[in-house]
Specification:
Elements lengths: L1 E3 L2 E3 L2 H4 L3 E4 L7 E3 L4 E3 L13 E9 L6 E3 L1 E4 L5 E5 L5 E6 L14 E5 L4 E4 L4 E2 L3 E2 L4 E9 L6 E4 L5 E4 L3
Parallel strand pairs: 1-17, 2-11
Antiparallel strand pairs: 3-12, 4-5, 6-15, 7-17, 8-16, 9-12, 9-15, 10-11, 10-13, 10-14
The structure holds (2S)-(carbamoylamino)(hydroxy)ethanoic acid and nickel (II) ion.
Length: about 170
């Protein structure tokens, strides 16, 4: 299979099979702090196994070269993983559904999205995704994910006959 992925705009609805979109635009809120602050409440949920702890990190990512060959995806079976852009720059996402839980991905199910700099994502537990795809060098992301025992990162490499490409417009 040889395919250039179509980059879709990131919306709550389109991304629902993969996780949550963390954004304030168009989302419900309620007032707190004596009316000085809007709380956009529970835009996503941190998913953990019983032995896991939720931790907060910063990823500083360099840009990759495009067109980019998507050779692998990874997943975190024990917890969710969220990426919140800290500098307000767009970034890209490549994802595939959890599937049957096995170590296989249907290349036809792989999708790509472009997040605006005001959108973050929370990959749900076990959702296949490409490691962070920054569009600005040394861009930084706040990351909330799971720490704990066991291997929480499965990597799946596509067969050489599968050539998925990600191109910038
Ligand atoms: N390995 C790691 O912590 N980062 C990846 O999970 C990623 O999605 O970027
Ligand atoms: Ni990850």
């Amino acid at each position: 299979m040889i395919k250039t992925l179509t980059i879709e705009p990131l919306t709550r609805e389109a991304f629902a099979p993969f996780g949550d979109v963390i954004e304030s635009e168009g989302r419900d809120y309620f007032m707190i702090n004596n009316g000085s602050t809007r709380r956009y409440h529970q835009l996503g949920e941190v998913q953990l196994d019983e032995q896991g702890r939720g931790i907060i990190s910063i990823f500083r990512a360099r840009t990759l070269d495009y067109p980019l060959a998507i050779k692998m995806l990874e997943r975190h079976p024990f917890g969710s993983q969220s990426f919140i852009p800290l500098f307000g720059h767009d970034f890209l996402l490549v994802v595939a559904p959890v599937g049957d839980g096995g170590m296989n991905i249907d290349p036809a199910s792989v999708r790509a999205f472009r997040a605006s700099g005001r959108q973050g994502v929370n990959y749900h537990r076990g959702v296949w995704h490409h490691p962070i795809l920054a569009l600005r060098d040394d861009d930084e992301f706040l990351v909330v994910d799971r720490s704990g025992p066991g291997n929480n990162c499965d990597e799946f490499f596509f067969d050489e006959s599968v050539q998925l490409s990600l191109e910038l417009g």
